[in-house]
Fold each of these.
Amino acid sequence: MTPTATSPALVMGPVLYNWPVDRWADFLAQVADEVDVDRVHVGEVVCSKREPFYADRLPEVIERLQRGGKTVVVDTLALVTVKRERQLVADLAALDGVEIEINDPTPLATLAPGRRFAVSPLVNVYNEGTLGWLAARGAWSVCLPPELPLVSVEALAREGTRLGIETQVFAFGRLPLAISGRCYHARIHGLAKDSCRYVCAEDPDGLEVDTLDGEAFLSINGVQTLSQDCATVIGEIDALLSAGVNAFRLSPQTGDMKAVAATFRDRLAGRIDDAEALARLAAAELKVPRGPSMMRRAWVPAGATGA
Amino acid sequence: MNQVATLVRPELVCPAGTPAALRTAVEAGADAVYCGFRDETNARNFPGLNFSAQELTDSIRFAHDHGSKVLVAINTFPRAGGETLWHEAVAKAEGAGADAVILADLGLVAHAAAKHPKLRLHLSVQAAASNPDVIRFWAETFGIKRVVLPRVLTVPEIAAINAEIPCETEVFVFGGLCVMAEGRCSLSSHCTGKSPNMNGVCSPPSHVVYREEGDELVAELGGFTIDRTPKGVPAPYPTLCKGRFTAGSYSGHVFEDPVSLDAAQLIPPLIDAGVTAFKIEGRQRSRAYTQAVVAAFRKAVDDHMAGRPIAADMTKRLAEGQTTTSGAYKKTWR
């Protein structure tokens, strides 16, 4: 389970979007059978109103993933306010036999002492003090917030190594930038959150938000705001590995995630260089990746336009 | 039952960006004033603002002499490798006689609870503690005495929280309005490299460029167009989440209009909901503004406590022509 220095873990993050349940189950079945990742996250992170669609299919999906040799991690909600959401989180925190990942500190209220947990990039881990406190409470893996500059990632990875926990980075995908009480999908459709008609399901990669000058900018996914461009840490892999980062998260979206995973696997193993990895990512039918926009803003691939 | 007889007097918590503003707020009737050090440890790290250790000590003496409290905001997230600056800030605040520190970072809260057991700890809105379970976690694990609630909750949800938690709550009633859960937004970071969590700034002026294009004024932040306004029309400051964009067939304010928060009329139901303290945003604002807003809210709270209605237009001129909203306190906002 815990990766070694020579074989970092490849992790498929939770599906953040409102995919129709069959599409979601098909995607995870493909991940189970065909995609070369070590660990797969499931569970609703963004909006509790989506959760009932998946709930009864979750056990079969988890079993399929486990049969495919993947470690399964169940995610908790990112923003917990009403009673039903609190109950969902408490139920997950009490779950036995499966790893859980916390998306805010709420589960810490009910997690049994000694129960281990993973920490998502939506939890604010900015420094050694917070990392150490979480490790002492039972965190075995911490995926760092994508806002962190490389120098902080390196410092925290060194501290993670000292503490004996996994340090993970958000390695590929649209960057999760914000979470809100307000649903932007509902808002721009002239609806309220409580009567949203699930309009977010129309946009499997979120709805693109452009500037008034037509420049690609952000994307909205219900109550969540993400970057519009896929960020990738290809280009920083050697620095991250040498600092002690030992897990890399890929965030699902439409396009060829199998190719994305294979590309990362090959690059992490040193079988291909950055240029080839970037070329393969660009061919995976995804939004042109423009580099780790917050970790380091230096990299723009050939052929990309704009910022 | 006569409800007025059982009313607990709420605390009015007012902003101070400078020692002069602090004196102004105290004299205008603030029960408590919040402020921060002149560095990256506080979430209003703007040039020309904030307090040195000596200024804080002197200001706290002044406030205490006038019966007001001082709360020190140390509410950014400490930098990896640089936590000493934040630890020293907590120690300096306690040394200066602060009535409480307002913290957001888990590691910093743990540090303060362990090393400064006599110091009263408030949980900053930047920690986005949005339900009774997580508030109990903070209160029971670290002895947090008051939680500043994130602006994602309705009044009934706030009442439900207060019924279940062992500590006080404080809510924002006036001023700038975050649309996202506070402390969980890196839009500014994505756009400019500077963020509330790390640098104590959002949509910083250093990254704003205005340019004229034909009949329009274009406001850019970090190179991205945030708004276009016809010449002659007042242009709002290009705060990222209040800008105009396109999304599908929609064009306009995708996240929020350029509005500010005004919950003055919600003071009575918020008191009934068990809220202990009302907070006014705006440490970056002028002394004149501070004086006017604090005096208006002093009168609103006092009127309500005396059984008088709160004047419907009392905050109108304070918004300085800006449109206001009661935000998430009303369910339709979502």
Note: The longest helix of chain A spans residues 21-34.
Amino acid sequence: MSQNVVVIGGGPAGIEASRKLRDLGYTPILIEKEPVLGGHLARWDRLFPDGVEARAVLRPMLEDLDGIKYFTDTEIASINRLKDTWVVKLSNGLSAQVRAILLTTGFDLFKAEKKEEYGYGIYERVITNAELEDWFKSGAAPQFDKVHTIGFVHCVGSRDEKAGNRQCSKVCCVTAVKQACEFKEKYPDLTVYCFYMDLRMFGRKYEDLYLKAQKEHGVRFVRGRVSEVSEDIDGHLFVKAEDTLFGKPLKIKMDMLVLMCGMAPAASTPALARMMSLSAGEDGFFLPQSLVSSPCTSSREGVFFAGSATGPKTIPETLGEAANAALAIDRYLKTPEKA
Amino acid sequence: MGKIYDRLAQDYRIKEGLKACISCGTCTAICPAAEFYRYNPKKIVTIVQSRDDDAIVELLKSDVIWYCGECLSCVTRCPRKNAPGLVIMALRALSIELGYFAESEKGRQMLPLMHAMQRNVLNYGYCVYPKTFAYDKHPEYGTVGKWTQDNMEEVYERLGAHLGQVGPGALRKIPQESLDELKAIFDLTGATRWMEIVEEKSLEKAREMGLTMEEYEAQAFNQTSSCHLNPQE
Amino acid sequence: MIYQGKQKIWSEYQKEIPTDDWFYVRSCIRQSFFPASEKMFLEILRNRLGKNVYETPSHTTCGGIAYHSEAIPQETMMTIIARQFALMTEAGYENYVCSCITSFGLYTEVMEDWREFPELEAKIRENLWKATKREFKIPKYLAHASDLIYKFRNEIAEQAKFRLVNKATGEPLRVVEHIGCHYSKMFPSKGVGGAEYPYVLAGMVESWGGEVVDYPERRHCCGFGFRQYLVRANRGYSVSNTHKKFESMEPFKPDMIITNCPGCPYFLDRWQYVIAEQTGKTYGENGYGIPVFTYEEVAGLVLGYDPWDLGLQTHQVAVEPLLDKMGIPYHPEDKYKGLNGKELQRPEFPMNIKCC
């Protein structure tokens, strides 16, 4: 009879790790609090850097769940240590006693309304990056009329002590550049601005995307963080930022603004950390054994991590960590139990 | 670090207001002074942050630190919890202490300003007082303002104030013991010393510029060059 | 504009404001330019609401304007503030209410500084003792006078004889609210509604029947700037900032402006006069400007007090169009009279803007 492993979080990290664990001969018990598997990836339209469709990445994963016991709409009720095992009780009444738990709880998107000066939830023409993906995916007609100029606001809820998130969310810059290109591909006559602090084009082909945005699409990059958004009498927006390279304050009229909300620690982190005596960093994400050499093991026996539960990550990094964690769990479970 | 920076860093407004700046520009974006003057709060914080004594001394002697209106709008927006407005206030205080204020046109305004403020506080116990708010120095007070000044006793009586009277009420005569206490506080905590510094340095500067004190003070109060303004684009 | 989004923010910035027993300190600028407003504040709290608000003649300026003009060092300002607190302690109070917004910001900042740097508090205590032989306790609650009127806005609405409604059309008046910068920009959590969408004045306007008008430069400073106004050479800064605000609010056609800061109503009023005389432009209809009020003036108007008891005759921009809109009766012939109907020489009238 194959050993059970509890995997908490049914996004790409959890699904991929479950598949690897199953291939290694274990029975993963995959718990997901939302009604569907897939995490945030299920929401996105197309992914950077090549524009591959998110569903094309997710579909083969979701079609390969044989041998994995998964529960959606289910949360963790409690986790307790019993000798060298973990007793996990679920909100559906079931419980499992396992030697290894994998935390793939991912991230929460920063709630844009907390950045009050941007007017999300007050000005209709201010939307989030996630809402823009929804709209791209739906293929619906534009929801606003008279749109000539749009702007992308980088670093919303990231690199921001006041918002409670000092960390950089890593992927928002390339996402903004991607979305700017996608907008221009749909509506070539639009003027598109990106208000950034530093353009983090760290990955392969990201710089190419940036070049394409500038050369092919004429996206205007302004190095200055947006300070304030206000609304005109006709519902259009004014954006105040400084063009720091020119050293001049700007006030630009916009017809739509997209807020690049960053990855914030998942809301479930403190409770889970308490249940298993795990530590979180000052930034609120789980702390692995080493951020360099053991990103998938924790300080507690039998508890492992994969994906953005330990900090903002891209999909390929997440899938890589999922495999890493599966192997680490395999080695741990094959190690003779301590007497 | 340099001696000037060390001295500046003693100011509580630097302890409060300078964490570390990432030059994001949110302060400059909504700064009223940045729109009007050749002023950039981000640049000032970057210079102070560099701890370069020579650059800081240059700031202390320049017009630039006197452009801020101390509205503190910058404090609301900074993502690193800095306060450029507070940094400016610390720079201004040091500029006065070291006498560097007299080297700039805007800095020389300290003489008429400090005279007006300190005299109001010590003589009357208020920062602003109708009997010293002369219409000819404030034509923007308007025609109704002039009427208020010309009919001061009657108008303030009509409005329910207690101009110069004993007891509680608006514009009351603040008891002499209270004014004496304010003087004692001024003497003990450095306000009197600041007045002495400003008068001494202004006198030196006036001599250097070939002006009488009256001419110097009037010039500081009334004149401004156009070099301070942001060119219109 | 999605109103519920604002309501959500307002609900997150609630402020505890005690209901009674206040130690009151006045504002230099308001005593000089709006003394009737301070009188109305006490009239409303003491006589209309039966509250205990105590004032000692020995209290002085907090030194805020002098401090922000660099006329006195920080240590002097803090010791003056400590003296004010000592007067409160000696009178047996722990709730402190101040009439000026700069004061409010300063008191808040000083108490935060003392909390973070106890050695600084100790030094100021020592200073105060050496200079005046007084000792002080830190207030338990600090509020601005507008916080109190905000707190009792519904009680005022109940006693009101007039509403912020255009009597002829039945429509709510369009009200621009202007919050003093030092109210919540430095410490958003200390202001009702926070820094981006403060509610202290919006709450009053809504309670009294008006409609709040948001416009792009709502949060922009009026441009007082302390030395930028007090020194004549710098006044271009001050008028430019106010000008920017008026250009921005013009398309929204507001009926009136309500403010909670001492300087702001003075500047928003006077600079309209200056802009009119220099450029010929006025922002109201037919050569009128947009009348600017303190919140006590508005409260007094809705409660039915005589406009000339409220000090509205000292405004440069005429208030009569608004009084007519609200259906408030008044005697134009009494506007520029002294106490007991004493005849005074009337003011000159400006060229380009109507003052009555």
Note: The mean pLDDT of chain C is 96.
Amino acid sequence: MNRAAQPAPGIQAHFAKHFGGGVDICVDELCTGAHTGITVLFGASGSGKTTVLRCLAGLTAPDEGWIRFAGETWTDTARGFHLPPQQRHIGFVPQHYALFPHLSVAHNIAFGLHASTGAERAARVADMLRWVGLEGLADRLPRDLSGGQQQRVALARAVVTRPRLLLMDEPLSALDAPTRLRLGVELRGLLRQLDIPSLLVTHDRHEALTLGDDLVVMDQGRMIQRGPVHEVFSHPMSLAVAGIVAMETVQPGCIVQAADGLVTVAVGTAHLTAIGLNTLPIGGEVYVCIRAENVILLKGAEALTASPRNHLPAVVRALHDEGPILRIDLDCGFPLMALLTKQACTELALKPNDRVTVLVKAPQVHLIPHATVAGGY
Amino acid sequence: MTHEAWQFISFTVRMALLSMLVIVPPGLALAWCLARHQWRGKVVVETLTFLPLVLPPVVTGLILLQLFGRHGVIGHWLYLHGGMDVAFTWRAVVLALAVMSFPLFVRAVQSAFEEIDPLYEQIARTLGASEWRIFFTILLPLARRGILAGLLLAFARALGEFGATIIVAGNIPGQTTTLSVAIYQAVQLGQDSYAWILAGVSAVLACAAVWLSTGLLRHPKRAL
């Protein structure tokens, strides 16, 4: 396919869907970029992600607005136009996969290939089975497959027709935790090979980080921030986004000094150095965001104040066991959360009320100005 | 059993089977429209379809006679264009059995369709399947147990039909007399033991149909 010839690759959409008593969904200019990467629509349950996906697939009609894909109009309520899903040529993988329960794996995959001849169809199905690593299961019924196998059959069924856009609804959420970890990596590998622009919705941080390139954050039916996944997770632009991406430490602070591109922020009784935002005046109110994974703990080291590396004395308040990692509540003049591996924790011999030194690099102290209200990019 | 008794039994079974053939295509189509679509006049069609369930069968028979008699709206047209008499012929028997069992079939199929997650059809649409293809390759196979169970119930209902049949088809031995009508006549003539034999046969037929039907619905997960 000659992608250069396509006028505007990706999705452009602006539509609204109203629910009686529920959330109004409003999508502004939802674009997946020119590249064929994976865009994640991220938000809590009930934020309208699945509805957006269903509107794009043509399974639900928006109440007003339009949807275009690669320059082609899919929906335009002003003209009463609604391209049926059959003609959108997309792949859709719903949350619980919805494999046709009465059809074998091979027939499920072959379902979209009704226009092909028998031999062609058989060859394509065999290709797909090999691709997802399910050779030998062609004659199984969906109920005899594990969750992970069902997921791969659903993916194969959706992409066997070489769709122009792949839509996935929480592709990993129906799996148990160990399978989810393993298949997340596998699924990413498969999607990478596909070279099909993909949009997936999820409320799971792990799913977003494992699978996504770009992230669009949805809150109460609105898109409130977009950007590369890691960028959005570490630099939320508003308190609402910080909450949705589960920023571990969010504390109110006040700018007390600004010089040479660095600002000093008073948080609780502590002072932190952050990379300065030109727009922040002295005395400006901010929210200080620190990702737990960016907090380094030292024991016995000397606390240096006013260093760009932010050495702060702290007291361990509590340790929470979360499997391979420990979540540690600290008090360093303000409540701060850190993550440590079990190994590191044993080496430090941490226990509640221990005195430690906290180290947070200035670029990892993210500031949200108070003025930024939810909404807007 | 007498030759005549066998004749009644086989005639009734053949008429009931024929009426099933008549109701299956429109029944499937109507159940699909009721289960999956919203349209104007849906309530009217639904009411008309299910009316024979609650209307006295004799009244249904009377209405059919009015419509299909040689001077009725439909009967007259059929007589003119097809040279065909309906009332008081075997056709009237099939008509009465079909109309009386139609709502049972439609209701069973409708609920079988409604039990299917619409997501399957939606996925099929994203895979480019036409509505026809979805109906035949997704809905029918997934609803097959409910459809068969509904068909058996409708068949059992047709076997026992009396009120509508006797009005629109009458009681012409060898031409329109069904099992139920024959029983009625035997009782009228004081042939009680003969009536009991026929009653026993219809009870066995009805039991078999209901037993099969509930068996089908009880194990929805087991492959057919």
Note: Chain B touches chain A at residues 117, 119-120, 122-130, 133, 137-138, 141-142 (CB under 8 Å).
